[in-house]
Every structure is written in structure tokens, then in C-alpha cells.
Amino acid sequence: MYILKLKPAFKDYLWGGTRLRDDYGFDSTLEKLAEGWMLSCHKDGENTIENGKFEGQTLSDVVKANPEFLGIHGNNFEYFPILIKLIDAKNDLSVQVHPDNDYALRVEKEYGKTECWYILDCDEGAELIYGFNREISSEEFKQRIEDNTFLDTVNKVKVKKGDLFFIEAGTLHAIGKGIFLAEIQQNSNSTYRVYDYGRLGADGKPRPLHIDKAIDVTKCTPPDRGTDPEGEEIKCDGYTKQLLTKCDLFHVERIQIEKNYVSVADEKSFVSVLVTDGSGEIEGMKIKKGDSLFIPANYGKFEITGNIDLIMTRV
């Protein structure tokens, strides 16, 4: 058993920028790097292993052959439980909504999508759409989509570096231009577009909308939760730790290491480590900004040293 280094899968959606290449040093033939799927067993963007005896294999094949790597909590899910991305929104994303588990499993044959966003960087004045600014009926929602006035009812929120947003399934949302963030989500790619600013896809045609499904699943209310974090920063000798969010799907922390940090991958869950800045070592392996690591459940104690910021996720 060892710590697996993951090779991301990249997406070149039309709203993406180049920060994943320019700031993080990722190598890709794609012109735009809108998303890097940093922890993924999803069929639409698989990670492969870059080190050790599993090198060249997909993460999904490795965990399928070694289910103990997921831990007790991880094995409670029918599919690999989470997907983690880095998202570079040079331009606005479509206004969209994701279904919950019941609807998605019935209609899409995969999980629904509850997610959280941690703002890593943003332009001054950048904002996102997060739910509605007041409660409306489904009928009004449909009518406003048809007459192109529904943006008058959405809740727009200005963001700053370090903000955390919890996006429960059914919440209308959109990442605005100039935002760079980490997304921790359920392992799902079910997205229903409501509005796309009249843009054309690579085929020269408007990208499809999914109005009927969106109306089925959207909660036409202000968001249930505001910005997290739920926990204050805890300063310790060698590092600072902060709980970003915790729910029955994932537990997410931000760790800023000045010298060293010791933690444990126990029998309950694997640990995802996403390096967002700096460089250092984990158990003797050099790591740097942009690296994504999978630590199997039951690995035991591990130590990270250096001057390094990271997001640590468990299920």
C-alpha cells in the first residue's frame, strides 16, 4: 500500500481559461483548460496513476480491485463517492442546476450532485449566482425562462478568495467570470442548463438547454446555506488548519503548512490531498502546486513537510 499520485483529466469547455497551464504548469494539447478533474473515477474523465506498481492504470480499476482502499465509509456508496475539480472560469458558466440522488438515479443512472466551491482566486468584483433572491413558484420560474427575465430573480453574490459555498442538489447556480476555484462534489456529471447567454458550441449551434428537467428539480427559493466555513482557523506548531465544510457526503479541510503536518488515513476513509500552492514532501515523495494524491484507507500515519497549502477531503 502506498500513496498514489493522480494524473488529471482536462476539459476544454468554451468558458475556460489557461490558468491551469500558466499557473499550475499542467501539460495539455487542449487550447483551453476549463477544468482539471483532480480526483475522478467518472467515465467522462478518468484519472490514471503516475507512480508505483499501479502506474498507468486508472484509479477506478485500482479501487475496484482493492475495495479496501475506499474504507468503511467509501464502501457504503454504490459508486466511487466523490469527484474533485479545479475550475478556471475565464467567462461566465451557464446558469444550471443538478438533480438529487433520487431523481438522478432514476433518470440519469448515476448519483445526483451536491457540491461545494472553495474560491482559490478571483478578479475584483467577481460574482456568482447562488439560488434565488426570493421564493418563486415553478410556474413563475418556467414563465421567466420563456420570456428571458428569470435573471431578475437570481441571487448574485460577490466573492473573495477563501470563500466557501455549499451547493446542495436542486440549487440554481453559476460560476461567474474571473473565478478560479476547487470543487468537491458527488461523483456525477448530470447538469441541467437553464440559460447559456445565447452562446454557440464548437459545432456552431446553441448548446442544449434542459428546461423541463431543470424545472423538475430546482428549489425555487433562496439558498438554504450561506458561505461557510463552519470552523475557525486552528493555528498549531508548524501548520494552520480550517474546516471548510462537513456533511454526510464529504469532509473538507484546508491545511496551510509552514513546517510539517501529521495526519492519519484510518479504516473509515481514503484521504484526497490536493495541493493548491507551494511545495514540499509527503512521506518522502516530492509534491508541488497542482498535485493530487490518493491515500488509501488504512494507510496509517502520514507526514507532509514544506511550505505548502492543500485541501484535504475524506468521506
Description:
The chain is mainly beta and 315 residues long. The protein is built from six helices and 22 strands. The strands form four sheets. Strands 1, 4, 15, 16, 17, 18, 19, 20, 21 and 22 form a ten-stranded antiparallel sheet that branches. Strands 2-3-5-12-7-10-14 form a seven-stranded antiparallel sheet, with no helix packed on it. It has a three-stranded antiparallel sheet with strand order 9-8-11, with no helix packed on it. The protein is globular, with a radius of gyration of 19 Å. It starts with a strand and ends with a strand. The mean pLDDT is 94.
Record the SSE blueprint:
Blueprint: E1 4-7, E2 9-11, H1 19-22, E3 35-39, E4 48-49, H2 59-65, H3 71-74, E5 82-89, E6 95-97, H4 101-107, E7 115-122, E8 127-132, H5 138-146, E9 154-158, E10 164-167, E11 173-174, E12 179-186, E13 192-195, H6 211-217, E14 227-228, E15 234-236, E16 239-246, E17 251-257, E18 260-265, E19 271-282, E20 285-288, E21 292-295, E22 300-314
- Low-confidence segments, given as residue ranges, are none
Structural class: mainly beta
End-to-end separation in angstroms reads 19 Å
Reported for the largest beta sheet, the result is: 10 strands, antiparallel
Mean pLDDT: 94
Integer-rounded radius of gyration: 19 Å
Indicate the proportion of strand residues. Answer: 35-45%
The number of distinct β-strands equals 22
Q: Oligomer, anyone?
A: single chain
Count every helix, treating DSSP H or I runs of 4 or more residues as helices: 6
Overall, the morphology is globular
Instruction: Give the % helix.
Output: 10-25%
How would you spell out the order of helices and strands? Answer: EEHEEHHEEHEEHEEEEEHEEEEEEEEE
